[in-house]
Amino acid sequence: MKNLIVLKVITVVLAVSIIFSLFSCMNEDRIDVPPVKLEDINGNYRGRLITVQGDLRNEKVIDFKVKKDSLTFQEFPVKEIVEKVVSDPVKVQAALTAMGKIKYKMNYTSVLNADKNWVELTFAPKTLELQIPVDGVIKKTLVTMEPKQKGYFVGLDYTLRFVFAAEKITVNGTELTPFEPITYNFPYCVKIN
């Protein structure tokens, strides 16, 4: 009988504490997200890039720059693209070395949300043109890039998020088939200045 009374008291105390915890959470003020301006997005960024093609997934850190209406990569990662054009791994590495750093620029338009605490970006990627050297021959490669969703610059932590994909590759006028799109996901990019 004593154990039953103790169990009932503990249950009542636990129930009351849960109820008070829930009410205290409901009464807390929401976190105020600081307002941003369209110009706040401009600057240099460092972000995590997750590249996905089918079951293959790679991650790396990449830097890029955002200006008024464009996003520019000074060293765009093209390894996955070159691997689709050149099948021999030794020749892939030789081609990447010969190509050097690949610059890529994407245009965008931006809109400030009604609360002025985040910016929505609509990307208009250009076709990426590559000259891939293989066995003394240059393979002219055109990569069609498409946005997968809108990008967002958030005022709470001044971070940028966006996703786009290489949807089609054409080599010397012939489209690669079958080809599974290569997705470039930037889930969290931090403004470094």
From TrEMBL:
In its UniProt entry, the species of origin is given as Chryseobacterium endalhagicum
A Pfam family this protein belongs to? DUF4840
The protein's name: DUF4840 domain-containing protein
Q: What is the lineage of its organism?
A: Bacteria, Pseudomonadati, Bacteroidota, Flavobacteriia, Flavobacteriales
Keywords (alphabetical) are: Membrane, Transmembrane, Transmembrane helix
Transmembrane feature ranges: 5-23
